[in-house]
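Subject: Sanity check before I submit

Could someone independently write out the structure tokens for this chain? I want to compare against mine line by line before I put it in a report. The sequence has 217 residues.
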Amino acid sequence: MSIAENLKEIRKDLPEHVELVAVSKTKSKEEIMQAYEAGQRIFGENRIQEMTEKWEALPKDISWHMIGHVQRNKVKYMAPYVSLVHGVDSLKLLREINKQGRKHKRVIPCLLQVYIAREETKFGLDEQELQTLIGSPEFGELKHVQVKGLMGMATFTDKVEVIRKEFHSLKVMFETLREVLPGISILSMGMSGDYKVALEEGSTMVRIGSSIFGERQ
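---
Independent answer below. Compare away.
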């Protein structure tokens, strides 16, 4: 199936309120344009330099999401244009995004990444760290970042009950956070292999790559 056909199939699964991030890391500009011509406007990258090259070359109505682990020294390259930073896992990183947002006279939307998986390789805040960050006096003073919600990645496993439990725990944290930050609206969870479970557990944003573009080379 073509990229356009794959997109059409996936969109059938998604409720209207759920946003689709097409994960375009390692994909060519031509492949991205095929998705663009099929109506896709949100693309996710995991390397800031690659994302910046694509931003410079491709249509300006594309929303670029940084979905990978963010190194603080690279924030300056994406600060002028990034639409959403998914993987914010420390106050230090928020501070840097705020600083670069101020330089570019913009408020940069972010998601706080929560560690829900049973794998050591994943990044993120645990529940206690999340509460500490949100409750810190400095958090309220960061005027050039806007926390829009939470993001989390489930364990890479075939056991649906494990994935469901992890997504459910993130949804509970999201609802708790909403009491403190009523403006949050994004719960980013679910990828090609597990997005249907994520949708059942309340995801409002899914990140899908291989099911759109085919397996990575």
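---
OP: Matches mine. For the report I'm noting this point. The longest strand covers residues 145-152.
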